[in-house]
Amino acid sequence: MTFIRETIITSCDAAGNVHVAPMGATVTETGYVLAPFRPSRTLDNLLATRCAVVNFTDDVRVFAGCVTGRRRGWPTVPAERIRGAVLAAALAHEEVEVAAVEDDGVRPRLECRPVHRVTHRPFRGFNRAQAAVVEGAILVSRLHLLPSEKIDREIDYLSIAIGKTAGPVELEAWGWLLDRIAEHRAGGGGAA
Question: Residues in domain DUF447 (predicted)?
């Protein structure tokens, strides 16, 4: 069984410019496998610097903001053991180094091993709206791949959780996702 954690990956290019992106990190016995699709700034950064930070956050605006382009300048602080950056909103983070690369023309797999782990604040759990925003962000990242009917069905279902448990943060993030879907359908498409 594959166990994937929905995370925010912070990576840096060779010049030290920080890139923030949501990504599922597959849990392994020794760390994580990251498998970004090509083209990907995260992939380019991982191959160039051989390190990144796996961030765990409950601020779902980061997930929604990254996939919709509503906000990309998420605050970061320097990592402790690698040349990298930690998401300031992280509840916990793991600084990782790339141990092996399985190249692929579409989706390379990078085996990453933690070199430093820090818990900043306790995780008190997601409410249903937070989980819905994360799922909605995954859908938006695949607008160019999925049929409209599937998007509509999933958004309708996820809207139930938004209506029942969303607070101001989740409502803001959900609004960004719905706006992005509308833009895509109006011809502002392309990959989210």
Answer: 5-120, 127-178
